[in-house]
Amino acid sequence: MLSKSLLITKTFKIIFVILILSFSYSCTKEKKAPPKSMEQIRKEKGIPVVIKNVEYTNFEKNLSFVCKLSGIQEATASSMIGDNVQKVRFKIGDYVKQGQIVIEFPTSNPTVQYTQAKVAYENAEKMYNRMKELVLAGETSQLNFDNTETQYLVAKRNWEAVKQMVYIEAPISGKIIEMLVKEGEYIDRGKPLFTVSQLHKMKAKCWVSESEINYLKVGQPASIRFGDIDFYGKIAEIGLAIDKYTKAFGVEVHFDNPKGILKSGVTTDLKVRIYNNPKAIVVPANLIQKSNGNSYVYVVEDSKAVMKEVKLGQQSDIEYEILSGLNVGDKLIIEGQGLLQDGVKVAIK
Q1: How far is CA 97 from CA 69, 86, 104, 129, 186, in A?
Q2: Which terminus of the chain is more solvent-facing, meaning fewer CB atoms within 10 Å of its CB: N or C?
Q3: From CA 179, how far away is CA 174, in angstroms rounded?
Q4: What is the CATH number of domain 74-194?
Q5: What does the alpha-carbon distance between residue 165 and residue 109 come to, in Å, rounded to a whole number?
Q6: Residue 131 — φ and ψ, nearest 5°?
Q7: 179-200: per-residue pLDDT in tens?
């Protein structure tokens, strides 16, 4: 009987403890405050932003054009007869002097009449030398000498022309950059044979529209990039009339190429600087806010976002020059401005 009474007493104690714990948990749960909204947190702590101190920097504006590079002087020799190439004396990369024979055609070509022209020249030269002695000795008239001299000069010019048809010379001094034929290959008349280029200096040719041509002038700096190297040159020539095919003005820019890094025939981008301010305040275009025709940026003052009106100057691809409204040392907001309004509290990250 006593045992049963103890069991009942213990059971009541356990139930009592459970009730007390449940009540305490309920009270604690009721006292816990609800979580704060993001808006409340931002009001109390401020909207997180990233800033950058305004400072002077170099600002420049460039025009960009597609151009093609070539040697400062280039010339291509072509065939004057149709025949098989008898000999190629030089290869690509070789340096040749103006007048050096590069390619030979057979002298037996019937169109050329090589032997006849040679004999005619040699005979005319002999007669000319003889008549020169006679006229000096007074044994023939000046008229006879003049006629002989004319015949000699005609035969000489004809002989030189024949040689140029079979012995193709380098039109200028420079490096052979193209060899378009091989020995034994049949070549039609008028076909290009090889190209010689002077590569110590290069020229870039580009075409400029009517709207851009007035920004350019002879002597203006320009640059190109080849691989990972920048080359700087100057505008050397500006066309005075629109090309009827491209409907644009031709512009030529010259670059020094002492190490031969630049290659003829390469297409690249040419940049011409048309504006430069070495001491400018510059802001990325995506930070500019527009409202009622005015431009604004956000800065931080006394832990608050302040909307400042700015006057814009020149624009490059991704930046604006600021003429007024921002000063060196201002804390320009560069991240987080999408959530801002004038005067709201901010927290600098």
Answers
A1: 22, 21, 16, 32, 26
A2: N
A3: 14
A4: 2.40.50.100
A5: 10
A6: -65, -30
A7: 999 999 999 999 999 999 999 9
254-287 confidence digits (pLDDT tens): 999 999 999 999 999 999 999 999 999 999 999 9
Give the pLDDT of residue 22: 59
Q: Name the nearest CA neighbour of 53 among 276, 281, 279, 277.
A: 281
Beta strands in 134-191 (DSSP E): 167-169, 174-179, 186-187
Q: Is the separation of the CB atoms in 307 and 342 below 8 Å? A: yes
> What's the rounded Cα separation, in Å, for the pair 282 and 244?
41
Cα Rg of the chain, angstroms: 44
Residue count of the chain, please give it: 349
Domain limits of the chain? 47-55+288-348, 64-69+199-276, 74-194
CA-wise closest residue to 69 among 260, 314, 321? 260
Full-model pTM? 0.70
Q: What is the DSSP string of 55-123?
A: --EEEEEEEEEEEEEEEEEEEEEE-SS-EE--EE---TT-EE-TT-EEEE--TT-TTT-HHHHHHHHHH
CATH of domain 64-69+199-276: 2.40.30.170
Q: Which CATH number fits domain 47-55+288-348: 3.40.1000.10, 2.40.420.20, 3.30.470.20, 3.50.50.60?
A: 2.40.420.20
